[in-house]
Design brief:
This protein is of the alpha/beta class and about 400 residues long. Helix content is about 35%, strand content about 15%. It is elongated. The protein binds adenosine-5'-diphosphate and magnesium ion. The site of magnesium ion has 3 residues, from helix 13.
Length: about 400
């Protein structure tokens, strides 16, 4: 894929620059922002544009309003937090009426920042409606996409608008693509990938692609159960995806064919109930009792996974090793988190739950790169082109 134009190669002084950001932040029960990591990750691009005297107009989605106005999903609180983070007032534009929006933006000075209302309030966003893209494009002179977390979506504010204005990638987008791209194309070896979490369906594509690249592919968490099932083992009441068994069988056969190291758990922590007070047992994977569920990797697996992770040149980790939200099933995820954090090589972690686990153990600061894009990172690791990136102008066309 050719490189994309960087925001640094855009002539932005005095111009109105539309910036797609991913401010889809988690909120607590009272609607307060629980974690502003994604907002902080966009500050480099915003501050750069402000210093270059651009008029910055931010566009973001928030939650899943499905083309309607949902009061709890307005971006007022996000605009407030952004003002604090920037130390500069942000003009919040709550209207969806285009003439009103244009009027609110008319007074925006060079170096000023505005935030449009949740773009998913418009029914045309997720359908990539050309009319919506044209309205957005009409508000600016150039477009910057810094929303890596939304780059796997072909929406009006990601791809539609990119085709209508001179476009470039933002600094967060560049960093994500650079780090993940190098891990796939020229990793420091050995490259060890650790994939866990609940759903095979979400991650089978990643396994397929990484299998051809990685020196070792470690599979844990709920996903591993479907692998046990495919091998004809008793899985008790474990979470499984029977429909994925044929796919998993193909994957296992390919790994053997290619001589790839696909490492499955050798022991698991089982319980009758997925609950904090459950009685647990450690069993080898061929001895999961009927009526019991595998809810974490066992101590021998922990040791093996941790050993492989610690000695890697590059580690990519996505997906917890067990039901880490509950104390009796957290040891596997914690052991992997600690080993990844201690690895002196390049360490990359993606996925909302995996990052939450790192934060829970106070290890987030020890990771080289924490991806801001769950789904987008997975699709990138599958080897797929992200539409939000593909739509941007290529580099090498000078400054525009
Ligand atoms: P991420 O957000 O890091 O990509 P996922 O969303 O794929 O991770 O998976 C996280 C979820 O997987 C967690 O809620 C965790 O409880 C669940 N999980 C992990 N292992 C198991 C298991 N053995 N059985 C059931 N659920 C599991
Ligand atoms: Mg998740």
């Amino acid at each position: 894929m050719p490189g994309k134009r960087s925001v640094r190669q855009l002539d932005v002084a005095n111009r109105r620059v539309l910036v797609r950001v991913d401010f889809n932040v988690p909120v607590d029960g009272d609607g307060r922002i629980a974690d502003d990591t994604r907002m902080r990750a966009a500050l480099d691009t915003i501050n750069y544009l402000r210093e270059e005297k651009a008029r910055v107009i931010l566009i973001s989605h928030f939650g899943r309003p499905q083309g309607r106005v949902v009061e709890e999903l307005r971006l007022g609180a996000v605009a407030g937090r952004l003002s604090e983070l920037l130390g500069h007032p942000v003009v919040y534009v709550p209207s969806l009426d285009w003439p009103t929006v244009a009027k609110s933006l008319a007074g925006l000075a060079p170096g000023g920042v505005a935030l449009l209302e949740n773009i998913r309030f418009h029914p045309g966003e997720e359908t990539n409606d050309p009319g919506l893209a044209a309205h957005l494009a009409g508000l600016g002179d150039a477009f910057v996409n810094d929303a890596f977390g939304a780059a796997h979506r072909a929406h009006a504010s990601t791809t539609g608008i990119a085709r209508l204005l001179p476009s470039a990638s933002g600094m967060l987008m560049e960093k994500e693509l650079e780090v993940l791209g190098r891990a796939l194309k020229a990793p420091e070896r050995p490259l060890v990938t650790i994939i866990g979490g609940a759903k095979v369906a979400d991650k089978i594509g990643v396994l397929e692609n990484l299998m051809t690249i990685a020196d070792a592919l470690l599979v844990g968490g709920g996903m591993a159960n479907t692998f046990f099932l495919a091998q004809g083992l008793e899985v008790g009441t474990s979470l499984i995806e029977p429909a994925k068994v044929p796919l998993v069988k193909t994957l296992l056969a390919r790994a053997a064919e290619l001589g790839r190291r696909l490492v499955l758990p050798m022991d698991v922590v089982v319980a009758r109930e997925k609950a904090t007070g459950s009685v647990t047992r450690v069993v080898p994977i061929h001895a999961i009792p009927k009526g019991w569920a595998a809810l974490d990797i066992g101590p021998s697996t922990r040791e093996e996974f941790a050993r492989l992770a610690a000695s890697a040149g590059t580690v990519i980790w996505n997906g917890p090793m067990g039901v880490f939200e509950l104390e009796p099933f957290a040891a596997g995820t914690e052991a992997v988190a600690r080993a990844v954090a201690a690895c002196p090589g390049t360490t990359i972690v993606g996925g909302g739950d995996s990052v939450a686990a790192l934060e829970q153990y106070g290890l987030a600061g020890k990771i080289r790169h924490i991806s801001t894009g769950g789904g987008a990172a997975l699709e990138f690791l599958e080897g797929r082109q992200l539409p939000g990136v593909a739509a941007l102008d290529d580099a090498g066309e000078g400054t525009v």
